[in-house]
Write a structure and sequence with these properties.
The structure is a homodimer. By secondary structure, chain A is an alpha/beta fold. Chain A contains 11 helices and 11 strands. At the A-B interface, strand 6 and helix 11 of A face strand 6 and helix 11 of B.
């Protein structure tokens, strides 16, 4: 599967969430147990939810990298788009991709292995791979995988959730033995919602992905929180931060969706007329005073990005 | 996996080879047996090898299509690049991809299923999928799958061949019961080599794929044959046909590799200085009198395309 003599770096996406970090760590553990020379790495700081999970299971955060030597062997988990990956991705040799997102202008020089499924998390796909190979994860790994699934599916509230994800959590919990999954996920979500004393710019950066839609370069941020009022109360500052980010970069538009995890609503902060016209075109939503209500669209991958992609490609 | 109420079209690449046609037919049969409304289609005429195989097993050629209604649900087998697929691919909903090639600028609006493995043929991957699902192919389907594997791996001579492909053929042959695989593959290769009375332009078109490398639009044709002298003897005509094709299209370069299946050599017809400089850059091969000898590079996907992709992306 891999050249066992060449170190392979396993990485999730930039602005990593729990699924990105956990999938890199868990897949690396699996591959190391099969004799491969692998190193899990991260393309950014862990968020507070991920820190809570890693602390809970006693696992170290992977090394954060910005660049790798040209020609490094890499495995992408939880993403495939160049904009969301390691700098100069096309200078590396991509050996494997395990992901559950849409594909974005993905190219390689050589054939490779890819496994994409429309499940709620990358950790769910890893569970299937492990099972096919007869690999039993440890309690630590199983707990991490459950955490990633609960995080990505908002404990089964997100429309990305499938029956398979629920069954996988049940199966993994025979190993992880988390007593109360609801209580555990509430602890995770509280950790994620505890944004502390951070700047408005950091709020916009907390969980963002870059996409290119029909030539338009975008940044779509989400804040998944049990306390939407905190971010929405700082709307003016956030609008200003978005303007700064756009001035500093090559971005055509920046959206920040504040997702109320418990009530499953999406309140989008709309910085300018450009964003307002996109929100109108993609969701038929009106903007008033920098706010557009996007209803129950709580999943970037399933209910936010596809309408924008379709609206801007036509 | 699919919306069982929406017809899904299963298709291999343009300028189809045996693996492209067989994989579409076999995967469609599997999905139909699981209650899905599917239709295998082809993006071009079958070659003589494929016709031999379909006749041998008594299977009809799929319908040849040029366009589908916008928004059709499609499954791509044996390819992923837009240049090699249905017209306006991005207007359709790609539900699944099963492939063993490199990725080329592939994009979707929504998450999807993909399974790419570096095996010798797409039929080999389908075999693994069937096995995982506990699906036993009929003798007809098993014979078609073996044919696709033997075709794509040049009966295990191609460097794309893996031990897994060999084991899969052995396993499938417990169902197909082909007495002498060598004899059968020679019949396939003779059928493929019987080019009959075709024009030089048709020779260039017999098995080609379009790629984009660092902005350069290309056409890379191969003629896999037991009788390379036939095509090489028509070199002057072929060079002229390549010039015509380039004039009629937006192509930056066209290569035609004549692959001697039995002796495993690649003699490339080089139409102009543009092609000569690419062959020099990618393979360090000199061109003399419109011919460059590319040694044992008998696999477009493994030993022809990657060096060109690397040379032209840097």
């Amino acid at each position: 599967m891999y050249d066992k003599n060449t170190k392979t770096y396993i990485m999730g996406h930039k602005s990593p969430d729990t699924d990105a970090i956990v999938s890199a760590l868990v897949y690396a553990a699996f591959l190391a147990d099969h004799g491969h020379d692998v190193e899990p790495v991260a393309l950014g700081e862990a968020n507070n939810e991920t820190k809570f999970v890693l602390e809970h299971v006693g696992m170290d955060m992977p090394m954060i990298v910005e660049e790798l030597p040209d020609g490094a062997h890499i495995v992408l988990v939880d993403h495939n788009e160049q904009n969301q990956s390691i700098y100069d991705m096309d200078k590396h040799e991509i050996k494997w991709v395990v992901d559950h997102h849409k594909m974005g202008d993905f190219s390689t020089h050589k054939p490779l292995h890819m496994r994409l499924e429309t499940l709620g998390s990358t950790a769910s796909i890893l569970h299937k791979i492990f099972k096919e190979k007869g690999y039993q994860p440890s309690q630590q790994l199983a707990t991490m995988m459950i955490s990633a699934i609960l995080s990505d599916t908002l404990h089964f509230r997100s429309p990305t959730t499938t029956e398979e994800d629920k069954a996988i959590v049940e199966e993994l919990n025979t190993i992880a033995a988390i007593e109360d999954l609801h209580e555990y996920s509430m602890k995770m979500f509280s950790a994620k919602s505890d944004l502390g004393d951070i700047s408005a710019k950091e709020l916009v950066q907390i969980d963002y992905k870059n996409f290119e839609f029909g030539g338009m370069k975008s940044w779509i941020g989400v804040i998944e929180t049990t306390d939407p009022d905190y971010a929405l109360g700082r709307k003016e500052e956030i609008v200003e931060a978005i303007h700064t980010i756009k001035e500093e970069t090559w971005l055509d538009f920046v959206l920040l969706c504040v997702i109320d995890i418990l009530n499953e609503t999406n309140t989008c902060i709309v910085a300018s007329d450009v964003e307002a016209s996109i929100v109108k075109k993609a969701f038929d939503a009106e903007t008033s005073d920098h706010i557009a209500h996007l209803g129950k669209r709580v999943s970037r991958k399933k209910t936010i990005v596809p309408p924008i992609s379709e609206a801007l490609s036509s």
